Amino acid sequence: MFVVSLLIVLFAGSAAMLAYSEAGAPKTAKSPLVMNFDSLGQTQDTDSAGEQTDTGEAGSAAVQDTEADSQEQTTGAADEMLAENERLFAEAAAKGENVYLLDCADSERVTFAFAGDILLDDAYAMMFRYRSRGSDINDTFSADLLERMRGADVFMLNNEFPFSKRGTPTEGKTFTFRANPDNIEMYAQLGVDIVSLANNHAYDFGKEALLDTFTTLETAGIPYVGAGRDLNEAKKPVYFIANGMKIGIVSATQIERNAVPDTKEATMTSPGVLRCMDPSALLEVIAEAKASSDFVILYIHWGTESQESTDWLQDKQAPIYAEAGVDLIIGDHPHCLQKLDVVSGVPVVYSLGNYWFNSKTQNTCLVEVGINKEGMEYFRFVPCIQEDCRTRHLEGAEKESVLDYMRGLSPNVEIDKEGYVTFGR
């Protein structure tokens, strides 16, 4: 995806392990090398044929001096950025944090893409149609949408199932999902960098299947948030370091609001998800991430299924998390699009909708966000549609129809014709 300068080799000796778990095991991200030096604007030769220009010897020397100064400044900026990334990484690794170094396409910003629910269970329509079409990812997602997912520095979605061949389905639950661990190869094709497991299907086949999910993702080098082998692990944020910034991602679920939920909550001695019906545990996680990050993203499972309006608990909790210090809230679970809003100065996506989840025809989206040292640089709502077990990017009248729909849901934001959003009128 990126062309990386040989200068990285010089840095590799001091940062050979690019990401650490609490136990110190290496991890990898989509773009595991530290910097993309090509994006730092190296000076081009002024005379490709090597012929003498009519500036004369003195002029030529002046040009060479200018080029040397420019090259020195570029190298100096790169060295400073590498040093800052290395410092942030070393601090995080020393604390046992889940931390990853990114090689970004641009030296000024980190780009994120967010999608909603995905289902890779062979027993359901999406994977059945995928197999019947020759397991062709290019016949499953439109080419421009694949380019957007793969092109983001970090692409995140909701892993709405366990990866396992073990376990038994939860008794009495209407829909239970489980994907063959081999199906994770689709994530590599999509460019997935991190997933949330904080949802109401991660525990559909019990403890063993959830544990297999952790192992499958770890083997594939894909970080996860919102669940763990115990409560401490479930509460751990994931951090990405790039361009002198440290960005934290946290996740939790409030779904299955009954007294004894089917999806088990992680405890100090048992695996499960991080729940936030009571927000206190999630607030602890947010405080931890805020204390050591430049920007904090909350990816939360909330809301009421098939309801385009927000529910009472979304309305109650959004300001709690905004005021606790998150910089962006991304929601899912309702299986449909919900409004965009700004709460206590924080942008909120209440529901991303189904991304590639079932055979229904539904409007959906990809959300693209650029983050720089000043904060959120841009936010773009990319209209898509899930139909005939495919997901594609919309253009023309179809695109404008979805943007108009979102404008109607979202009176407190402005959405331009290209989907760029201004939060707060």
User: What fraction of residues sit in β-strands?
Assistant: 15-25%
- Name the structural class: alpha/beta
**Sheet with the most strands?**
8 strands, mixed
Side-by-side strand order of the widest sheet: 1-2-8-9-11-12-14-13
The H-level CATH homologous superfamily of the largest domain, spelled out, is Metallo-dependent phosphatases
Assembly type of the shown chains?
Answer: single chain
Sequence of secondary-structure elements: HEHEEHHEHEHEEHEEEHEHEEEEEEEHEE
Q: Mind telling me the C-alpha Rg?
A: 23 Å
**Count of distinct structural domains:** 2
Query: Total strand count, please?
Result: 20
Mean pLDDT comes to 87
Q: What's the CATH topology name of the largest domain?
A: Purple Acid Phosphatase, chain A, domain 2
The CATH top-level class label of the largest domain: Alpha Beta
Helix content: 25-40%
